[in-house]
Amino acid sequence: MASRFTAGNLAALAASAPAPTAARRAHSPLRVVAHVDLDAFYAQCECVRLGLSPDTPVACQQWQSLIAVNYAARAFGISRHENISDARKKCPHLVLAHVATWKEGEAHWAYHDGEPDVASHKVSLDPYRIESAKIFRMLRATCAWVEYAGIDEAFLDLSALVHDAVCEHFPHIAAFINNDPPGDTLLPLPGPLPPDVSFTGTLFPIDPNAAELDTADPSPDAATTTTTTPADWDDVVLMLASHIVADLRARVLSELKYTCSAGIATNRVLAKLCSAYKKPNNQTILRTAAVPAFLAGTSLRKLRGLGGKLGSAVAKRFGGVDDKNDEDEDAPDNDTAEPPLQTTTTKSATPSLMIPQLLLVPLPQLIAELGHDTGTWLYNVIRGVDDSEVKLVPASKSMLSAKNFRPPLRSSEQAQKWLRIFVADISSRLRDAAAEARDTGVTMKYPATLVLHHRKLGTSGGFHSKQMPIPLGATATSNLDTLEEVLFSAAKTLYALTEKEAGMAAMYPCANLSLSVTGFAAAMAGMKPINGYFAPTKQVDVEVDEADDEEDDNEVITCEDCGRAVKTEEKREHDDWHYALALEQQLRAEEQTTASIATSAASSTSSAKRKDPGTSVRAKSKAPKLEKGQRRLF
Q1: Would you say 517 and 398 are in contact if contact means Cβ atoms under 8 Å apart?
Q2: 3-state secondary structure 127-191
Q3: Least confident stretch, 22-36, 118-132, 492-506
Q4: CA–CA gap between residue 296 and residue 215 (Å, rounded)
Q5: pLDDT in tens, 77-89
Q6: CATH architecture of structural domain 41-130
Q7: What are phi and psi of 21, to 5 degrees?
Q8: With respect to CATH, is domain 398-549 assigned 3.30.70.2740?
Q9: Could you tell me if 633 and 402 are in contact, meaning their C-beta atoms sit under 8 angstroms apart?
């Protein structure tokens, strides 16, 4: 009896498969994708740095809020974005580790004693980026096809590794392939399994009512293995992949002391859902036959790409519910530099739309309501169908460093101190990007444009923006050593020009300042050296959503917030643009509220005298909610 799968399906997994390799793998029913997710990553980094046991309740503190909480602390009911005093009440022995910061006037980030002052410090994520880079180097040493999905998560296309493992463990298949059969030839069945071929991890049951799910601890130190005779090769490739991932997780834990969870499935969407199924320090395998049962218990908003306005609109239109405030406490840490300003998390009291409800909506209706591309994509993804590729190319096309100033800046001397910090921050990330490019064999791309954004305090200030080109040298490594000074010189020039053109009255007090580099491109032979290139250039005012140079990449996604078509690799920059606009609106509203209260207080002297001196008149407001993958600007 023959397999349901063909020689072509298996051949598409091989590293030597004809180009385009990634596209061929993405359409093979035997493809295997893993999603690796570090458990409460920021908190884990602090545990490792401080030499603490994972059983110690630890929270990562930023100003007066918590941005990451380890699982030992969660056992006490502590959650992210909770304020310090409430967390202390729940767990008096909670260890609080404040994030590293850049201090005004200093040239490097550091962990400072006590609680840093928000007025003179800026958050640094560099310690977490450094640890993340170590983990990614380990991932890439095992698998050649690793996609950066965030500071604490990655997608791995394990297809080539699994192809080689199939040939190693099943000699009859290796001999079959060596005969070079036509691609549509059906494969022979696997037959009896070798002793070392089994599932390791949590195996989701095909029938959720059956007692098939093994709930024993499947961590690398105590792996749960399930050996069964598979129906076909789709089970075998997942078995082999489960061992590859378990070994990889064990090495990350042994060498770097970090635990991670993983999901193993046939595509990116399912792998990501599985990684969150059993956390922490676990891995879940989802067989093709178990996909319907797995998705039957899944909320629509758990699907990648449906966590924002699109998911909310779909839930409201087809399910009659609005679950826009639904938040997953176990969601991975985002690469953010600031937590939301609110100190508590509001969860929706409205039930979420479950996937089985949406399965009843026919494809023509989805297309009529959402458009052809979005409707078709949604129809497929709720059925577990996803052909998106695991990509090597980093998604980010910009780097930004910024800060809100409270109290505001009142002189160019103060501004230059912060520009120095912004430049050091960006330069550090460029060095990390260069190291990553060397590790992956990808051509390093360098920023072509430096952009300055300035915002005056008060409703009449508005944004002032200027940009100038950054020279790119032909020898990239040596240029990184001088790039920081070149960027600082350019930043001072941009600020001086902005100050001159806008006038001092329009500049101060300064409420927000940011510096970004965009337009990343490979250095071309024949370009001038970076340290001899700077010359006066024409300054051009730009909008916040400046466009980058186009690349030869036609894959686009629809932004959930504004409905625009955005290239995949531009998503992070587009998210930053949305947040910049939302932040501007928030600050204006806050200042209007503060001014209104102050005016009211001034006009009512008797009320002001009765006011408790310790009570603030400043209004509190909520920062815009971040979607998965978005980053704070300061």
Answers
A1: yes
A2: HHHHHHHHHHHHHHHHCCCEEEEECCEEEEECHHHHHHHHHHHCHHHHHHHHCCCCCCCEEECCC
A3: 22-36
A4: 20
A5: 999 888 899 999 9
A6: 3-Layer(aba) Sandwich (3.40)
A7: -60, -50
A8: no
A9: yes
